[in-house]
Amino acid sequence: MTELTLWRPFKELERIRKEMDNIWDTLFEKRPVRADGVSEWMPSLDLSETKNSYIVNAEIPGIDPKDVEISLVDNVLTIKGEKKQEKQEENENYHLIERSYGSFTRSFRLPVQVQSDKVKATYKNGVLKITLPKTEEAKKKEIKIAVE
User: May I ask the CATH class of domain 41-85+101-138?
Assistant: First the structure.
């Protein structure tokens, strides 16, 4: 015996709309969302390239540079750290909490080989700057185009 189920197209459309809203929200927040729906804190990064090196700028305000770990293994740069929540006062009641806390890990593969022994990192005004010098083989050769 088969059971008939009433199809409710508007209810299905509402479910799809909610899923699309969640997708757009996570895209513009730049925060990954765990399976339980809670967004994780992750610092924003910029990766730029000069003739001689790659430069990574990571926004990590409120984090002590001693609490940040940087590693480069097989041309994969990894930045790990933790943004710790400030101690709450005993009689303090929050009405709104928008700042995110927790540990983070950012890893990405660099497009070319770099000189791992010459990597430098500096921290100023909440921005971690990592300079990764390219190897001589990885530096691009400029080719001029002859106009006839």
Answer: mainly beta
